[in-house]
Amino acid sequence: MRGFDLLIVGAGAAGLSLARAAAGIVLPGVGTPRIALVEPPAGGPRSPDRTWCFWERGAGPWDAVLAARWDTVSVVSPSGAGHEQAIGPQSYKMLRSRDFDEYVRAGLGPNVHQYAATVTAIDDGADHATVHAEGADGSPVSLTARRVFDSRPPTALPAARTTLLQHFRGWFLHTAHDAFDPATALLMDLRTPQPRNGVSFGYVLPLSSREALVEYTEFTRRVLDDEGYDQALHRYTQDVLGLERFTVAASEQGVIPMTDGRLPTRAGRCVFRLGAAGGATRPSTGYTFSGIQRQVASVVRDLERGRPPTPPIPHKRRHLAMDSVLLRALDSGRLDGAAFFARLFARNDMRDVLDFLDGRAVLGRELLVAATAPVAPMSVTALECVFRPSPPSIL
């Protein structure tokens, strides 16, 4: 049985981000940490290639491997009215998971030991935890570590007032003629048919004048079947975008829980949850990558200072309370989701909205953005949330 200072379960955005950041630190009384990175063998239950998007000011640590970036974003209302704005000094950035994976692995030092094994159990202890796994040939693998960070998706969602699903399918399109503005990312095109409860929209990230990732997305309780996604994408690309001739080079699909249930980041004395499993996803938007980076930065600071490295929930309590109200209002049908998002972007500086959605707005601007929400449905829902306490967190 091999022993490590840190052990990371899962090699997605959260696991690899932590491995990269922790590989170069110095632990008090230890020095350079010995790190194990455990992920399923090839052919096992790994996540498919996917696209992560986020926004940030200026240069960032992942700029070298970005698939694209945009300094202008737009939103289209149900009526077809467009709202477009340059968002400098921020940029909207797109990162492909395979590029991220190759970049991070190429920079991992010799103190990071990678294991291809499927974790079957984690036993917590007083001063270390033991991770039990199964190799590709079925052989048992047991590793111990002073700190274990589990970044696997949760097997079950927590009890919550409201849980919606952000579910989507996207096509990487090639058109026969110029069809896209490569300088502008279309974040929400609300001209799609709307569900009774929730919201749907198109999402267009141009890679050139003839290439783009075009997605159809819903915030609803239930996912669609394959035929439903394909029909929605055909309607959106042809009837809304007016694309007549194109080929689909690749596709991606996903489901992101949007829940006001609480996902604790500590799972034991020596075991912690990281990433989506540890509440990194912003409930109202589904964006996760920025939250992961904030969690990792906090963990690394604590490790360097010899403190318990519990990943923080990277969203402030007041933001989670606002998210809970929004999710409930959408799910109850009190709030017209398409009208709400169109109004949010039309009545505010888009930079303020992005700061608001990322939890970085100063309080005064945050209140101004929040004040543009429709008063009646949000007030009724806020009162409902006050008098209907959320269920206790799960461990």
With helices defined by DSSP (H or I, 4 residues minimum), what is the helix count?
9
* Helix/strand order, N-terminal first: EHEEEEEEHEEEEEEEHEEHHHHHH
Estimated radius of gyration: 22 Å
- Report helical residue fraction: 25-40%
Strand content: 25-35%
User: What is the CATH domain class of the domain at 2-49 and 97-158 and 260-304?
Assistant: Alpha Beta
Helix/strand/pairing category: alpha/beta
Q: Which ranges are low-confidence, i.e. pLDDT below 50, for 5 or more consecutive residues?
A: none
**What global shape is seen?**
globular
CATH T-level fold name of the domain at 2-49 and 97-158 and 260-304: FAD/NAD(P)-binding domain
Distance between the termini: 27 Å
Main sheet: strand order:
6-5-12-13-14-11-15
* The CATH architecture of the domain at 2-49 and 97-158 and 260-304: 3-Layer(bba) Sandwich
| Average pLDDT figure | 94
By CATH's scheme, which homologous superfamily of the domain at 2-49 and 97-158 and 260-304 applies? FAD/NAD(P)-binding domain
Largest sheet: 7 strands, mixed
How many beta strands in the DSSP annotation?
16
Protein name: Lycopene cyclase family protein
InterPro entries: FAD/NAD-bd_sf
Pfam family, one: Lycopene_cycl
Organism: Streptomonospora wellingtoniae
